[in-house]
Write the structure tokens for this entry.
Amino acid sequence: MRRNYGQSVGFFVLGLCISASLFFLGIIIYFIFMKGAGVLSWDFLTQGPRRAMTEGGVAPAIVGTFYLTMGALLFALPLGVACAIYLCEYSPRGLIVNIIRMSINNLAGVPSVVFGLFGLTVFVKYFGFGISLLSGSLTLGIMILPGIIASSQEALLAIPQSIREASLSLGATQWQTIRKIVLPTALPGILTGVILSIGRAAGETAPILFTAATFYTRGFPDSIFSEVMALPYHIYALMTEGTYPEKQTMIAYGCALILLFLVLSLSGFAIYIRQKQRSYKYG
Amino acid sequence: MAKEKRIEVENLNFYYGSSHVLKNINMFCYKNRVTAIIGPSGCGKTTLIRLFNRMNDLIPGTRLEGNITLDGKNIYDKDVDVVEIRRLVGMVFQKPNPFPKSIYENLSYGLKINGIKEKHFIEERIVKSLKEAALWEEVKDRLKDSALRLSGGQQQRLCIARCLAVEPEVILFDEPCASLDPISTKKIEVLIEKLKERYTIVIVTHNMQQAARVSDYTAFLFMGELVEFDHTEKIFTVPAHKRTEDYITGKFG
């Protein structure tokens, strides 16, 4: 009797927790949608801003955020996966590897504005890339790198040693085993890290504040050395500067809605690949 | 059939760090014969069989003394290509370990990594190995299905087929029936009986009836020492050592 009672209470509390989480998520989406949907139009998605940001669209910011996110992934994904492979498959287990692992995990906890300052010092100034798409992508890339390494490592460690042995026992080299068996099997796990990273890279303001973003550009970025507009920075600028707060707030919510949609569709693509890969894994 | 020694183990000592797990082992495996390695858990039988295809190379902190020769050549010599050794000495593991890929890909993998690209040849070899492993009839219509959809016994026969596809000369079975039901076990035993016509077979097993049924020679290992190595018939009827007798009659272990 008492055990059943305990179970009911337990399940009730768990249910309460999930309801609360869904409630807040729902409210966020509801508010952004209600406030932002009004300004959405074809022009809003395809035109540049006009009249000091109070009219026109945010197309350069959409494109800018897309480029920055892709750029960050292009840099961080290969590097992160390669690091994870080295740490899990090649390096001898020991003190040094543990220290490297710990450092990487700590890197994940560094505040994003610190990455911004780092990007400013290293990419913008030292390498002379200036405030540009390139500097911003690299900075965002470094920010998401620890996450990608950590999730890739987890995915690699989750692969049973027995299938590595199966491959080696057929006369495969270690490199063939990694490339043809280990990596494809780990792909769903790696993509989970990518999905989380996309959201972070697309949404962060601080790392691009000093390295890539600008308040206004005439058109789309024409090279990797161009300054770019970006949705999160645009929202920040609309809410803190300018002379027509009412109009600007509306546009900011519109941007938020688009940002949400952009992140969801990029993640959706990664989820699609992940599901396709998983169908083999679990029959 | 003339008896020909394929694998010879001479004065073998093996250490994990400071623990001495195999002590002065001397034995051999004949071509076209099944050699069984039996003994209680932790006696070192799996360690021993994994030395035959250098699988223990993967474990850091191990040390080996003595020789293991394959056709007279020490497989632990510096100039030996470990990848080539593993192709010649195939292995079937304790738990079925198919790749999370289709049945077809599981079988073509070993050929592809060994540089064989011709599709027609690969397909022929796949059919041949599946037939040899007595799995063809069960999977011929669903080669594109995930290998993980097969039952445990089918998966193990797939692993055997995967091993056969690269045409090894020696096959090591490391407790191949440990996770299988009696019917699947029977199928694999029949299979081993047939495979010995073409291959040299070494099998580690917990199951003494299995060793008695399938093997021609039996090695009894106890605490890292080779207590007795002889014809299976002799081991199971007139063992020379008291400890062997106690083990096979179930007095301990």
